[in-house]
Design goal:
globular; 187 residues
């Protein structure tokens, strides 16, 4: 199991561009759908927790999934494996890009990757909204609260940008969403 965790998360780390948010869909595809290490609901809950805790989201997800499969050694191996490819790629790129950053082809590749990464992040966000807010509406017991909470948070985020002319702090957004969660589900 340890070797499988290492190879799986090294593969995830090697083929994910754009950071943790872009990695969520790949982790879901491999760890939930293919390997069935955790359920979809668990993945969503862990993603929320990983986003709300310090550290990169991909490291937090890898640590949780590794721990769920092989305890502390699994957590260590999965975490190490997911960051190892990025470490070597960045090391290699820094050596090469110092000389090549001005090259028009390198610039073209980087400009081409930006919309791809943005698209992956937007697609994952839309998928999470649909899966957690819209799809449950088709069940017999509809829960409109997730939809309402998502709308409230979106209004707060974009409204604060209009009013104060600056971005709303992600920390404040997390605190507000946690308070909404307690108000809606905890009372």
């Amino acid at each position: 199991m340890i070797l499988t965790l290492f190879l799986t998360f090294a593969k995830i780390g090697l083929f994910t561009f754009g950071g943790g948010y872009a990695m969520i869909s790949i982790i879901e595809n491999i760890c939930v759908e293919q390997k069935k290490w955790i359920t979809h609901d668990e993945m969503m809950e862990v993603t929320v927790i990983a986003e709300s805790t310090p550290g990169p989201i991909m490291v937090n997800l890898a640590t949780y999934i590794g721990s769920s499969q092989a305890g502390i050694p699994g957590a260590i191996i999965a975490t190490f494996a997911v960051v190892l490819p990025a470490f070597f790629i960045i090391l290699l790129l820094m050596i090469l890009l110092r000389k090549m950053l001005g090259n028009k082809y390198v610039q073209a590749v980087l400009r081409g990757l930006k919309p791809c990464v943005a698209g992956i992040i937007v697609a994952m966000g839309c998928y999470m909204i649909l899966k957690n807010c819209i799809v449950p509406l088709k069940q017999q017991t509809a829960d409109l609260w997730p939809v309402l909470m998502t709308l409230i948070l979106a209004l707060l985020y974009f409204g604060s940008r209009k009013i104060s002319k600056r971005k709303m702090s992600p920390i404040l957004l997390i605190v507000v969403s946690a308070a909404l969660g307690v108000a809606v589900y905890g009372i």
